[in-house]
Design a protein that fits this description.
- With about 240 residues, the protein is of the alpha/beta class.
- It is built from 7 helices and 10 strands.
- It has a 6-stranded mixed beta sheet with strand order 2-1-3-4-6-7. Strands 5-8 form a two-stranded parallel sheet. Strands 9-10 form a two-stranded antiparallel ribbon.
- Helix 3 links the parallel strand 3 and strand 4.
- The longest helix is centred in the middle third of the chain and has 24 residues.
- The mean pLDDT is about 95.
Length: about 240
């Protein structure tokens, strides 16, 4: 029996893994944990730093599925750890790959890779690229990525768990951290941009129901949130 721990803060990923393993995998004992309990996530919580030794002792494979915790070296070196990542490694590793793909034009997609001591860096086990259209917002691009993640989980996860697929060494690429995203959110009303640059920045930060882009009102310095809605012409 292969004991597998899924650590995820994303219900879409949890359900995709559960359904795939229920219908396909034989000999897998799946245990689900999350970082914190929310309205959608009623699973027990876990802290990978504090509970690393327990995880290593009890699980053969650990899956990170949009887990917001960084796996410590003790854990990734102590047991087999893989990551379901909403980006096309090695491009825009780290936070919110779809945001930065809209801004810098680098490819976007989904990747399942071995976790090593660097952020979103280990050998690639499977990946699928998705297009980024000129009318995409962060939300619409992310929804496309999630469908690609679901497809990879359905097609590849069982083989990955049982080590029936080879890993390809990944190059370093580029990394975006949370502070890089936060720096984008406050809009400088005096910044000079082309219309394309302005639209790209606003659509990259438009991800309802979240309020990302904002400027501060001159009257009282309250944040004024800005989002962009784009709708391509129907060609039919």
């Amino acid at each position: 029996m292969l004991n597998v721990l899924l650590i995820s803060d994303n219900l879409f990923i949890i359900r995709a893994v559960e359904l795939t393993l229920q219908s396909a995998a034989q000999g897998v004992n799946l245990n689900v944990r999350c970082s914190k309990t929310t309205e959608d996530l009623h699973f027990p919580t876990i802290n990978v730093k504090d509970d690393g030794a327990w995880i290593i002792e009890h699980f053969d494979v650990v899956i990170s599925g949009h887990c917001k915790q960084l796996f410590p070296a003790q854990l990734v070196n102590g047991t087999r750890c893989i990551n379901i990542h909403p980006g096309l490694n090695p491009h825009n590793r780290g936070w919110f790959p779809q945001v930065f793909s809209i801004l810098n034009g680098k490819p976007l997609g989904a990747t399942i890779h071995v976790i090593d001591e660097e952020l979103d860096h280990g050998p690639i086990l499977a990946q699928k690229e998705v297009p980024v259209f000129s009318w995409d917002t962060s939300l619409s691009a992310y929804q496309r990525v999630q469908e690609a993640e679901k497809k990879l989980i359905q097609d590849c996860l069982e083989d990955i768990l049982f080590s029936r697929c080879s890993a390809n060494k990944a190059s370093s690429g580029n990394v975006n951290l949370k502070r890089d995203f936060n720096a984008l959110c406050e809009l400088d009303l005096e910044e000079v941009l082309t219309m394309k640059e302005a639209i790209d920045k606003l659509r990259a930060l438009s991800h309802p129901p979240y309020n990302n882009a904002y400027f501060k009102a001159q009257e009282d310095q309250r944040k004024v949130f800005v989002s962009l809605s784009l709708e391509p012409e129907n060609n039919q």
